[in-house]
Design a protein that fits this description.
globular, transmembrane helix, transport, PTS_EIIC, sugar transport
């Protein structure tokens, strides 16, 4: 047992909620921000101003969200270079196969692939071949196995949202706003869910209210600690940046959820 513990310490493998649920999850949110969300902002600028270069650059940035998240996770886990670079393919496969649950699939798969890659790193004379091969093979194979079910689970959230649209407008606003706000903050693609199920009209208004309650709510609540950078990144980007803090203290999510339940009916 002591040998296994010493080996894990030598490989910098730490199985803990802090390492995976706070450090890795927080880094993944930053990777998503630096790819998909920046890309979305640029594409929006392009469509509003008619400047095509913004749209082009934004499309390329958004397409790299999977690799960006996986590399960010690897960085948080302190992966050796060959493992870190190999996570590019792992992230792309996980995000593509995960559908609406792509970010969550990337989180699980990248963590496992990274840790296994760290186990074999620098253990053979042909490390430059073995480490990338093991990391990529394990990661992509695992993505093919678990990413589709994760995507199906994320779509189930979308099904709940659609069922909520059948309620009376007031209660529909409460439920849709709360669920979409929660989906926005969780490591799943709320945009993909809303697009797939065609949330428009009153339901679309409630969805927007839920998103705003979480994004603006966390941006304002954390202003004292994060100042203007946090205000902009969360207010214009995503409240997913707070997932690490939510794991550490779930109570901080309550004000945003309650606010979304209040603003949802107003929006409808």
């Amino acid at each position: 047992m002591s040998k296994a513990k010493a080996f894990m310490q030598r490989k910098n493998i730490e199985i803990s909620l802090k390492r995976y649920g706070i450090d890795a999850l927080g880094a993944m949110a930053q990777g998503l921000f630096c790819s998909l969300l920046i890309g979305t902002i640029l594409k929006t600028l392009g469509s509003q101003t008619g400047v095509e270069i913004f749209t082009t650059v934004g499309s390329y940035a958004g397409a790299m969200s999977g690799p960006a998240m996986a590399i960010a996770i690897g960085w948080a886990l302190k992966c050796p270079p060959l493992v870190l670079f190999s996570l590019t393919a792992v992230g792309w496969a996980s995000n593509e196969l995960g559908g609406a649950g792509g970010p969550l699939a990337v989180l699980f798969v990248a963590i496992i692939a990274a840790e296994i890659g760290k186990v074999v790193s620098k253990e053979t004379p042909i490390d430059v071949l073995v480490t990338p091969l093991v990391t990529i093979f394990v990661g992509v194979a695992l993505a093919a196995l678990i990413a589709p079910p994760i995507g199906a689970a994320a779509n189930y959230v979308g099904t709940l949202i659609v069922e909520a649209t059948k309620l009376q407008p007031f209660w529909m606003g409460v439920v849709v706003s709360a669920l979409v706000g929660i989906a926005l903050t969780l490591p799943i693609s709320s945009a993909a869910i809303c697009h797939s199920f065609g949330l428009v009209g009153l339901a679309g208004g409630a969805a927007v209210a839920g998103c705003c309650a979480n994004m603006v709510g966390f941006a304002v609540m954390s202003f004292r600690e994060n100042r203007w950078g946090g205000l902009v990144s969360q207010g214009l980007g995503t409240s997913m940046l707070q997932m690490g803090n939510i794991v550490r203290n779930p109570k901080i999510w309550i004000p945003a959820i309650v606010t979304s339940m209040i603003t949802g009916p107003i929006a409808t």
